[in-house]
Amino acid sequence: MPVKKKKYYSYVDDITKNKIKHCAMVSRAIQRFKSDIEKSKENSFPYYFDEIQADKVITFAENIKQFEGQFAGKLLELQPWQCFILANLYGWRCKEDPTKRRFLSCFIFVARKNGKSTLFAIMGLLDLLTEPAAQVVSGATTLKQASIIKDMIAGFIDTNPKLAQRLHYNIRMIKNPKTFGRMFALCKNAKTFDGLNVSFALMDECAAMPDSFLIDVIRSSQGSRKNPSMVQITTAGYNFKSPGYIEWNKAHDILNGRINDDRFFTICYEYDKSDKWDDPNNFILANPNMGVSVFKENRLAELTNAKNIPQAKAEFLTKYCNIWLKNADSWFYPETLDKCISELPAEIDLSNYPCYVGIDISSVNDFTAYTKVWFIPELKKFYMEHKFYIPSATVDAKYHSDSKQIYDWIREGFITACD
Fold first, then answer.
1. CB 388 within 8 A of CB 414
2. For 364-374, what is each residue's pLDDT tens digit?
């Protein structure tokens, strides 16, 4: 009897051979995995892929009984895409010390109702069971949202006697008395962050977070851990200043080869620019769990609603198509802005055209904006030059209040800090 191929390898093959419809970012995540497997054969590459470690995690997960809905009482059956994610996070190891995992950070971009809570629960359980004095944190915008993962783990404990022998829980936290491990939910409005020594952070819907305060606090607490992990899973949203959008940009930069970060794993399930949002054949692009926890007939009903109600369209685009929107009334891809950026042809002399100037002067500590605009009739285009300024003394306050990228913007020349 032929040996059945492991799910994560089958997924790699199916994407490579286009057996599963997918977006460009999924293709690049698969290519990155294949490329790194080849690199791992070289002594200079510091990581290797350990199938035994990957298989242990998947076997553990698929021996957990479920407790909700139609799957209650049945063993968990991971989908190939979920196996691919877990295999990457737990299979890649450091050659110098195989007890150290390669990936310290992870960003997963996927539409709503695609089993992300299940992935989170598996990761949280593993850390509680294996990490000495584990401190697993489920973080989100609200305590109610953050508690979803904790409550799911509690449900697994109730349904699985072997887990119940080792883990106990109350309304506040889950504990492993033998290893002094614990898991709890956390949000930005917590009364105190004292005593944090997080081993595994599960950050849910970071696109909905107004800023990265909670993520920064948790990340700063992980310095003494051997395998500190920060996993962020989110669906698209409206906030282009959110940590979710910042991580999404970083994920694209890594997968597109613009930056290199060997300790950061990512995969993004989304629509490509040319994909039509209202084509049902594209549902699977942002919904890898289509047919399992996401059903086409339900999505079709939501699509009909989105076509008839503008507000429903915005929700459909963000939550089910995984498309970032500027606001609830209009939508565009961030890449659309890139099409507006072009160099002025050398033969165009701006002094031959009328110039219009707009200035937005700040009162105390905000940005001052200065824009010059020319209309070039023969090109049928507007040409604009923008300059932005901010008092140097207020940069740090701006960073902590609402502009986490401000130091990058200053360094790259987009903003001038004035004395």
1. yes
2. 667 889 899 99
